[in-house]
Design goal:
14 helices; globular; Glutamate-1-semialdehyde 2,1-aminomutase; Aspartate Aminotransferase, domain 2; alpha/beta; Aminotrans_3; disordered C terminus; four-stranded mixed beta sheet; Aspartate Aminotransferase, domain 1; about 425 residues; 2 domains; PyrdxlP-dep_Trfase_major
């Protein structure tokens, strides 16, 4: 029966070990984990392993994974290329406390893909990379204000949900309206030092920005003397040259992360020579360059894996994945439209898809949809997020589409039964 209470009760009954692990974790970890995006009620599914495009829960149930670690698991799970790279490290040693050639090798790989990243520095997450990119832009311009956009997410301390984020860094942020030239134009001024934007907002609802909007920001940055930063931690997986290459709008700086580390912690920021040379003591003079260090920046684990998996990311593999994602989204939209089921709609681009809910009780419909999919062996993001990885196939997409069709049919039949009961 398509009832939230019934589905949740079935979830609880089917996952006693997940519940036990969650209750143990809550005793030491506020919320039961240290990644808030995994929070779900009554408790989140606890995973034990993954293989290909499937994951196995602590209770032994196997799910086809359509969350792909919120874009980071581009290569699927337990990819043999990653295993081989990790074995390589065991024979060379690690934490050597010095420079290794792999830093330059990975830097060249990124530069060959992302047009704006002429020079690059590594760190350990997208959040960290965004923090440094913004700080660098403000030092370069000598200004304090940063133009950001509603529902933008650049990490846990640089995000702008509708309710605000009390954890944000104390920068002087100006919040514009995403993908709105008219809403952003009045906010522009010559005291803005940086403009940061995601070409597609992932956490913000999988909302793509138009080429016209990004081109407007490019022109505006030039006119007011600000540094334009693209946060492509997520969107660089949507085109071999990032969305900047796909759209032909090139920022001054770019931030990447997530999937590029092959499943290990990774972040990088880069941009024009004159901006990034602020970090070069050989050109700036001893004691005058910006100081950026970190024990695990460019660590041998991440770089070895990142270099290995970079060979899996080709223009052809990205095109195949985007084609598969577009088919999933458009077919799901057709299922919804043909059924007259207005409570769900989809957004996105290529392999990233947002599932949205509306009506009198959108949160309830969201939970029913999530637990219905889990019951039938599919895992998506609890908030309504679908992301494909390179190991998904036409067959796995077809099975998800059939499950969506079954959900709509059962929900519609239930609604008709309720309507008939009310009339009687």
């Amino acid at each position: 029966m398509l009832s939230k209470d019934v589905l949740v009760a079935e979830f609880i009954a089917s996952n006693p070990r997940s519940q036990e692990a969650f209750e143990r974790a809550r005793g030491i970890l506020p919320g039961g984990n240290t990644r808030s995006v995994f929070h779900s009620f009554p408790f989140p599914l606890v995973l034990e392993s993954g293989d290909g495009c499937e994951v196995t829960s602590l209770d032994g149930r196997v799910y086809t994974d359509f969350s792909s670690d919120f874009t980071a698991a581009l290569y699927g799970h337990s990819n043999p290329v990653v295993h081989a790279a990790l074995r390589e490290i065991s024979s060379t040693g690690f934490a050597l406390g010095g420079i290794m050639e792999k830093e330059a090798e990975m830097g060249e790989i990124i530069r060959n893909r992302i047009p704006s990243m002429k020079k690059i520095r590594f760190c350990n997450s997208g959040t960290e990379a965004n923090m440094y990119a913004l700080a660098t832009a403000l030092v370069f311009t000598g200004r304090k204000k940063i133009l950001v956009f509603d529902r933008g997410y650049h990490g846990g301390v640089i995000s702008f949900p509708d309710r605000g984020n009390p954890l944000n860094m104390p920068h002087d942020f100006i919040v514009g309206k995403f993908d709105s030239i008219e809403g952003t134009q009045p906010l522009l001024s010559t005291d803005i030092g940086a403009i940061i934007v995601e070409p597609l907002q992932a956490a913000g609802g999988v909302r793509p920005a138009s080429k016209e909007f990004l081109a407007f920001l490019r022109k505006a940055a030039d006119e007011i003397g600000a540094i334009l930063i693209f946060d492509e931690c997520v969107t660089s997986r949507l085109h071999f040259n990032g969305m900047q290459g796909a759209l032909g709008v090139i920022p001054d700086m770019t931030v990447v992360g997530k999937y590029m580390g092959g499943g290990l912690p990774f972040g990088a920021f880069g941009g024009r020579d004159d901006i990034m040379d602020l970090y070069d003591p050989y050109s700036q003079g001893v004691g005058k360059a910006l100081f950026h260090s970190g024990t695990f920046n460019g660590n041998i684990f991440t770089l070895t894996v990142a270099i290995a998996v970079s060979k899996l990311v080709t223009a052809e593999s990205i095109h195949r994945l985007n084609t598969l994602g577009d088919r999933l989204r458009t077919s799901a939209e057709r299922i919804i439209q043909e059924s007259g089921f207005e409570q769900i709609y989809f957004t996105g681009h290529g392999s990233e898809i947002g599932v949205h809910f509306r009506g009198d009780e959108p949160a309830t419909v969201c939970e029913i949809f999530y637990y219905f999919l889990l019951k039938h062996g599919f895992m998506i993001g609890f908030r309504g997020f679908i992301c494909l990885n390179l190991l998904h196939t036409e067959e796995s997409v077809d099975r998800l589409l059939q499950c969506i069709q079954n959900f709509v049919d059962e929900y519609r039949d239930l609604s008709l039964s309720r309507e008939l009961a009310c009339r009687l």
